[in-house]
Amino acid sequence: MAHYDTRFQPPAAYTEIRIVNPVSGNAVTYPAKLDTGATLTVLPRNVVAELGLVADGQVTVRGYDRVQVERPAYFVHLEVEGYSFSDVKVTASPRDDVLLGRDVLNHFVVTFDGKNRAVEMQDP
Question: Is 53 exposed, middle or buried (0-12, 13-18, 19+ CB in 10 A)?
């Protein structure tokens, strides 16, 4: 079961994910904010460097400011709440945590229990 991080106001839903370089097998575990507004998953730039990921094309992204930019695209394997996802197309930005987007979240039934600051992620 995922949890809410109370360092944010209002608290934000988080889980731990494992990110794997599909070529080298190098892996890291990172906190990931569940972001239903994000189309795809976004890694911190330092994770890209730490795992030695190599860009495989570009992706056009638009942030909350609605400005479109081109960013490098990477492919990774993800492990989320006991489930594995292969060849997930992600991008990176200068941030401290992962944004876990709808590209992954839509594979789950996600229940946000804000009152109890808990999140349940189930495979239907």
Answer: buried
Entry pTM: 0.92
- Low-confidence stretches of the chain (pLDDT < 70) are 124
Give the tokens for residue 26: 């190098």
CA 64 – CA 39 distance, rounded (Å): 12
Q: Give pLDDT, residue 67.
A: 85
Is the previous residue joined to 22 through a cis bond, with omega within 30 degrees of 0? Answer: no
Q: What was the pLDDT predicted at 28? A: 98
In the block, residue with structure tokens 């990176």: 92
Q: Does residue 40 contact residue 93 with C-beta atoms inside 8 Å?
A: no
